[in-house]
Known about the structure:
This protein has about 110 residues and is an alpha+beta fold. The chain has helices at about 25-30, 55-60, 65-70; strands at about 1-5, 15-20, 50, 80-85, 95-100. It contains three helices and five strands; from the N terminus they run E-E-H-E-H-H-E-E.
Amino acid sequence: MSQVHFISFDGIRRSVETPIGENLMRAATDNAVPGIDGDCGGQCACATCHVYVSGPWAERLPIMRTNENDILEFTNERKESSRLACQIVMTAELDGIEVHMPEGQH
């Protein structure tokens, strides 16, 4: 198991164990992490798993696909570091990743 650290907009940190191959949205919803809703069930059809990934962690992620980019265009708090947690699959290289959450997910 690997760890992912979800950090809310107000600085509250929630760490969860995540199996390799599971996406971060599923890890959050399975562990009742506040702020990650995953309304579409991980189908890249909403932005209720919007997170910010920066620094060296962002460099380890695969390139954003067009559909993820299109969904993120509709978020209120998009930044350069914005990603959808459902599109980030846990790998050994991501063990310990920190993702920050915006204040709102709609």
